[in-house]
Amino acid sequence: MAAPFALPHFVRDETALATVLLTIKLVGCPHCRKTGMLIGHGFLRGYAERSSEVLVRGRRIFCSNRGRQRGCGRTFSVKLTTVLAGFVVRTLTLWFFASSVLAGLTRRAAWLREGALSLSSGYRLWRRLRAAQSTLRVQLCREAPAPVSRAPDPLAQLFEHLGVVVGARAVGGDLLEAFQSHVQRGVLER
């Protein structure tokens, strides 16, 4: 029997994370599809961008196979929409960084302007964003056709398409966060 609804991969804030925890018994495991086996398995924590403060980045969910439970024993995560998986940097920083580069700044100058982490992190994020473009385009084309664009840079065209699809949902101009919230897929996933 199918679960009544699926758990989100991304939620907006810690209150929504708490709500997810209240509903997990009604949801089937994304791996084995068994309902009633999911339990909270701790927080995902990570450092803040500009300090050594440890912040909540999401929750881990465990499909219990302990005792007489029939779950598969696997875990998965529900993350905050501002989180970039595998990076300390948040979506808003990546958005401003990429927008600054598209506006004419060098990658080095744009990253130093954001003041986050080392320069090599900025270059690594840039490569990951460029590599994820085709996956992002596929997801966006499922939502709406690409707008006609005069921008010569493919990333600028992608950002225009992002604006069409999730522009009204963007909080503070962060289209990458709005994308993760709307599509329930990470920006840098391939």
Describe it for me?
- The two termini are 31 Å apart.
- The model has no long low-confidence stretch (mean pLDDT 89).
- The protein has helices spanning 14-23, 91-102, 107-114, 119-131, 133-143, 154-166, 175-183, and strands at residues 10-11, 38-47, 54-63, 75-80.
- Strand 2 (38-47) and strand 3 form a beta hairpin.
- A four-stranded mixed β-sheet has the order 1-4-3-2.
- By secondary structure, the protein is of the alpha+beta class.
- Helix 2 (91-102) runs antiparallel to helix 3 (107-114), helix 5 packs parallel to helix 6 (154-166) and helix 6 (154-166) packs across helix 7.
- It has two domains: 10-80, no CATH class; 91-183, no CATH class.
- The protein has seven helices and four strands; from the N terminus they run βαβββαααααα.
- The longest helix is centred in the middle third of the chain and has 13 residues, at 119-131.
Brief rundown of the structure:
The chain is built from seven helices and four strands; from the N terminus they run βαβββαααααα.
